Amino acid sequence: MSEHQNPEVITKSKIDKAINLLKEQKPKQREDVSDRDAVRKMRRYIEKLTSDKYGYTYDEVAEMLKGLGINLSGSRIKYLIGELRKSSRQRKKSEEGDNNNQSSEQPSETQPAVKASSEAEKSTVSSAKGKRKSQQPVAQQPEGESDLQGEFNDYAFQPKVYKDEDL
To answer: How far, in Å, CA of 59 to CA of 74, rounded?
Structure first.
């Protein structure tokens, strides 16, 4: 049997109109959401109720929600809250890491460049454990700078210089 009993002619203008109609469509509003999304939206209120101040348990919160037709166990709510906390902590750490990387790439005015001298490369000092360490060069402060600038030099990054034989 043929599905097209009454075939119509499809013109290019009809196709263009159909494409425009399909492009303009907005996403449908879903009535159902996942349990993860539901807990994400209610997270602030669930955490408030389960705090020491209010003292509710996750099972009691689950009973409250069951009355509204939201059937989640207390352990499932607790698990999902933990997952949301973990993902937000990871997001914060990655944002902080991005900020630290950006700021460390550009030298600041308070961190003068440290120049390694040939003497520092040649001299070595033995530590208590018998390991050899290259002596670190000391940045010399011009006489015109303030004592405050000298304090920053104490904390400036000083690279360690290795000899070929130490490697």
So the answer is: 4
Amino acid letter at 21?
L
Spacing of C-alpha 109 from chain mean position: 28
Q: What is the CA radius of gyration of the chain?
A: 34
For residue 132, the cross-strand partners are 126
Q: Is 100 helix (H, G, I), strand (E, B) or coil?
A: helix
- Where do we find the tokens 């996750």? 58
Which residue, 133, 111, 112, 113, is CA-closest to 124? 133
Report the C-alpha gap between 155 and 148 in whole angstroms. Answer: 12
The whole-model pTM stands at: 0.43
Residues 13-37 pLDDT 10s: 999 999 999 999 988 888 888 999 9
